[in-house]
Amino acid sequence: MSGSDWTRRDFVKATAAISAGTLVPSAFAARTERAIDDSIRVGVIGCGGRGTGAAANAIKAHPRVKIVAMADLFEDRLRGSYGWISGDEEYEKQVAVDPEHMFAGFDAYKQLLAIKDIDYVILATPPGFRPIHFDAAVNAGKHVFMEKPVAVDPVGIRRVIDAGQRAKAQKLSVVAGTQRRHERSYLSLMERVQSGEIGEIVSASCYWNQGGLWVHERKPEYSDMEWQCRNWLYFTWLSGDHICEQHIHNIDVINWAMGGPPVKATGMGGRQVRTEEKYGNIFDHFSIEYEYANSMTMQSMCRQIDGCAGRVEEVLVGSKGRSISRPGYAVINGPREWRFEGDNRNPYEQEHVDLIASIMGEGVYLNEAQRVAESTLTAIMGRMSAYTGKSVEWLGAMESRLDLAPDAYKFGDLRVRPVSVPGKTELI
Ligand SMILES: NC(=O)c1ccc[n+]([C@@H]2O[C@H](COP(=O)([O-])OP(=O)(O)OC[C@H]3O[C@@H](n4cnc5c(N)ncnc54)[C@H](O)[C@@H]3O)[C@@H](O)[C@H]2O)c1
Questions:
Q1: Which residue from 5, 85, 312, 347 lies 20 to 30 Å from 101 (Cα-Cα)?
Q2: Is 163 found in the same domain as 208?
Q3: Are residues 390 and 243 in the same domain?
């Protein structure tokens, strides 16, 4: 983006914010081997709803956080995000993005990652890009906050796991946007479940049943690629389908309780209501049975259809009781009756509090890449089963060649893959 695209007011505000930083090396700067001001410098890649929200959460997590660079595929999204966060008095003092540090286009992430003094990056594009961006962020030596899900296919999952291991070797901290893992009500519940308060887990279920989400209608000037990227929820190569994009939160909670991912998925799903072209090629409902190594089965259900009953929660049935959880709510029914009543700090902020503590060496070292990749693959294997009508084993999913990436990342023609048909779509 060129400097002339910005008003003088924006420029003055941005440079004033930069020069407000004092040039004293800090504990943080020392740890990250740079001597700049004592700010925790954050770059955002993917400046939509969540990227902007995560930047705001990072600001609230620590008074020394400064948002210093932003990158997005689309200039209008970039401007919208910058305008919102720099125009809000709650956040503006911690936003110091000058025009030279705002990037648009498919290579915007590379330009942002090339900035030496950025400490950590927020990755919040559609998940189809996450493996590429995470890999590049680790190569650039950045700590990472990345939104879930972290891939849309097994090839992407393997790339994330590999990059996560390289991050560990470099002591780079990685936190993923499965915020239930940072929410006190969930943490208290899991402590109890893991100490046996509901006995042995004998079955489980989890749900994300809700109505439809936003749709970005096609405009005549859009190429296929632009339309798909703007309307990304509805294309499996970008979102992974809603079982992956949304329901991963609930699936991750069951994997957490079970101490790891399942060994097999057998499921079904379809596209009953959202059949128009604008809904791309994803399904509108899934129902999957997951089997874990000890034969425990978990029923997972997700639906995005208006006018139906809503339910977003997780249920664990144990030999001595049952738990039910959802954001801000956790109970155990049974002899060890319990209900979470503590102070539940905003988990979206807590993620950044925990990440910053890890980066600064003040808390537990966090690298959630492997774990979130496993939960993402759990969702993907459920989708693979529903799309093909076959059962899918964990190892088969982990080794699958399924790669949904387009041949090239450039604006132009891009065929929409056909909607999957169980019994006909091949399991790869
Ligand atoms: N943890 C949660 O509760 C939660 C909530 C909402 C969204 N999310 C996740 O956050 C991510 C983003 O979702 P959102 O709701 O913000 O969507 P969004 O459409 O509002 O934002 C995505 C942004 O990424 C940009 N983008 C697309 N491709 C890009 C590329 N190649 N390089 C740079 N920028 C690119 C888009 O232009 C857009 O501005 C998704 O993975 C989603 O699942 C998580």
A1: 347
A2: no
A3: yes
